[in-house]
Amino acid sequence: MISPRQLLRALGLSAALTAWAAPAAQAAIDDPLDHPAAAATNLAARPMLAAAQAGARLLAVGSRGVVIYSDDAGRSWRQSQVPVQSDLVAVHFPTPAQGWAVGHDGVVLHSGDGGRSWVKQFDGRLALQRFEQHYRALGDTASLAMVKKNYGGGPTLPILDVWFKDASTGYAVGSFGTLIATRDGGKTWEPWFERLDNPEMLNLNAVRAIDGQLFVAAERGIVFKFDAASGRFRKIETGYGGSLFGVIGSGRLLLAYGLRGAAYRSTDGGEHWEPVTMPSTATISAGLHDAASGAFLLVNVAGELLVGDATASRFELRKGRAGARYSGIGAIAKQHYLVTGMGGVQTLTAP
Questions:
Q1: What is the overall mean pLDDT for the chain?
Q2: How far apart, in Å, do the first and last CA atoms of the chain sit?
């Protein structure tokens, strides 16, 4: 099983995050959950791990709790007020005002003002007590054992991705089988560990809904698909043996991507998958489907942009900034995209 630290290392992010964190590091006894993000300089050049759009506003999240936003299509950036110094790895805004960010130490942050300021809704400290209480009430000893194994040592496990259907209903996934859900905008988070056939506690790396179908991308080439009738996720094997870091697409056409440049395509809503020949073997860290053009766009840790046609079966390579080690991509406008990486944020144009 790949650990959370190994996951970041596989994406080429660990060393850069450590280097940036060192100047701001405090005493070893200090907990990043207890300190607000410090004021940063040269914002556009800081390591950033994920991007999002909140209406016309662009946002990026990254190391040491730094969140930045731009109201002029990425030409200038400001820093948001964030109550923690935990590394943030994913962000999603279902509406222009309401958004969520997640990251290390099991932290879940919420913004109600388009990302200008954030409050902490949940973290790994709360997880042990609340999740134990939940599964004791259900008499679910298997899930209870999983909670103790995950959180008994403290709030160390990261939440790796978050997705919200609207301002109320959302889901977050993380290491060692972590899956949580909310129906009240994050006021309460309920563990859904038992809704996955995941006895090995594989890392859950990404969560997304595509045309009403909820998917989770995991280790060992597994994609979980939610079945509303049973209230559980079905495990579907793509045929790949490595980790998958995301699922994108539209309708019944889906693309899953991950380690070593692997990409798998489905034309029946995720029931069956086939490998796609890719022009690079670098790990694919993020992707999006451009609904307007039908194109599939992927970024990798080699600083490359992979542009796929509307069938997700043919991809062309576009070189980006040298040493960028891309980690995230978000849409700005037609054929314009915000890309995050170890070299900071930049805008790209794709055909």
A1: 90
A2: 38
